[in-house]
Amino acid sequence: MAEPEKNQIVLKGISGAPGICIGKAYLVDREGVDLIKRYPISEEGVPAEINRFKNAVKRATDEHAAIIDSLHNDLREQMDILETHLVLFKDKMLYGKTIETIKTDRINAEWALKKVSRQIRRMFMKVNDPYLKSRVTDIAQVSEQVMRHLVGAQDIRISDINKRVILVAHDLSPADTSQIQLELIKGFVTDRGGKDSHTGIIAKSLAIPAVMGLGNVTHCVENDDILIVDGNSGVLIINPEEDTLFSYEARRANYEHQQASLARDSHLPAVTLDGVKMRLMANIELVEEVVSVRDNAAKGVGLFRTEFLYIDLKRFPSEEELFEKYKEVVELLTPKPVTFRTLDINGDKVLPYMKGVEEENPALGLRAVRFCLKRPEIFITQIKAILRAAAFGNTRLLIPMISCVDEIIKVKEIIGKAVEELKKEQKVFNQDIPLGIMIEIPSAVIIAEDLAEHVDFFSIGTNDLIQYSMAIDRRNRQVAHLYHTMNPALIRMVKMVVDAANKKNIEITMCGEMAGDPLNLPILMGLGLRELSMNSMSIPLINQMVRRLNAVDTRAFVEKVIKMGKASDIEAFVKETYGNILSD
Ligand code: PEP
Ligand code: MG
Hints:
Phosphoenolpyruvate binds at residues 305, 341, 463-464, 474. Its cofactor is Mg(2+). Belongs to the PEP-utilizing enzyme family. Helix 1 (46-70) packs antiparallel against helix 3. The chain is α/β, with parallel strands linked by helices and 584 residues long. Helices cover 48% and strands 13% of the residues. The model has no long low-confidence stretch (mean pLDDT 86). It has four domains: 9-29 and 156-249, 3-Layer(bba) Sandwich (Glucose Oxidase, domain 1); 46-151, PtsI, HPr-binding domain (Enzyme I, Chain A, domain 2), CATH 1.10.274.10; 271-277 and 443-584, Phosphoenolpyruvate-binding domains (TIM Barrel, Alpha-Beta Barrel), CATH 3.20.20; 306-433, TIM Barrel. Strand 12, helix 15 and strand 13 (435-439) form a beta-alpha-beta unit. It is built from 23 helices and 16 strands. The strands form two sheets. An eight-stranded mixed beta sheet has the order 1-8-7-3-4-5-6-2. Strands 15-14-13-12-11-10-9-16 form an eight-stranded parallel beta sheet. The site of phosphoenolpyruvate (PEP) has 10 residues, from strand 10 and helix 18.
């Protein structure tokens, strides 16, 4: 009898790693581990039962150590996570307590281990510390590894899979994930896990599509079912209809094509024909974008717009919550620098949970650093989180919307207070990080030399600099025609800022959108900028442009541009001079 046609099912989970893959399901069987029975042990039987437990731990530890040994040296991230797990096997709470429970309750090792790991997990869940909370998963995974050896359940042996499949599992531990052979496993989906989990981090580093936190995917999928894993949007489609399959095939091919051409270009050094090096950095808003930072070969994060972590929540985040996120980004990118821009809310980014004074003109109101100085407790919390994350890698601190010297002095006082608190609390932190300011208000351009006395670097924010110098609301379509990066006023202001930074010997970069448009590149290079930060997707194209330019020529070119009085003339001049490179 022919099998009945299966219906298409669409499940929404969390994106574990980006990318799209289509293939057959392979269920990772964990039966045996979940069906634990409780049985009593006689008093004389206790030592043997403890030994049985110790042996299982030993076998699990040996197996785990072998996995670590088999890893390549450049998989540092995975190695760190696995080494943490190695320590957990002999953790007093888990190991010691299980032995004690076998003795006191006189029960079998499986039940004792299950009981203890459940207690630890409950205890950690109550703690108000997201870091400790996330360790719950580690403990569950380590005890499951031991449990497998206790019950003699079949190993999942991901390393033994010999066909191209998509893994479907209740959960995958970092140890499981590390065994994934990239040429065989197309992607994976799990019931558990989230974007913050270690498994998610590893999936991203492996760059295979993954959707996690699907709830009960293991009960919806059968072996050999056709699956579409869309790691970009966190969607899983089981037994897709023909149309869906066709459209996803096209999407997958398109995505892979894009990735391949991007990757090919972006890993070449961004050096001009006459040997001038440009540092191309990425602007990000979310931790998840780190993948794209890497894929596009950014030299670090030049602008981390931190407000999005505040917008996502229903309240102001705690120092611990922020620290966890910041640390993750810093660790993922180290030794590349991560530039944390402090909270830039109000203006156009409003926090839904913040009831404040209604402002007639929010862009000119209590925005960014002005808000932070008015609410120092919120500011200090963020600065403490950044300084703590700075202990884990290369970090820079960037303050938005500085309009006068007094503000930067006040900011430094707040940083001083944050440092005092961290010392008192005996937390690990690093206060020795470059302090920079966004130059995005015309007054800051005019007093740039004075401001330079107080900071280590400038970052030019052209998005706001245009808004405030041209008096154009960034979001108002009625005046959008005036919003032009080739406006002579803007170009001359950029020159003033670069000259001031060079004179005062501080670093200078640009992180406004102007930096990501290839048309602007000859001007920016000619003005002397050597570091630009942009949406990471723009990097490959800018990189390609850099490799086709002569820095010396751009200097001569800009000398003419600076004397021009109309944006349209400047644009025509850029196209006339560099059109051949651009049109390509
Ligand atoms: C800018 O103003 O140019 C900038 C980079 O910051 P934002 O767009 O976040 O205001
Ligand atoms: Mg800005």
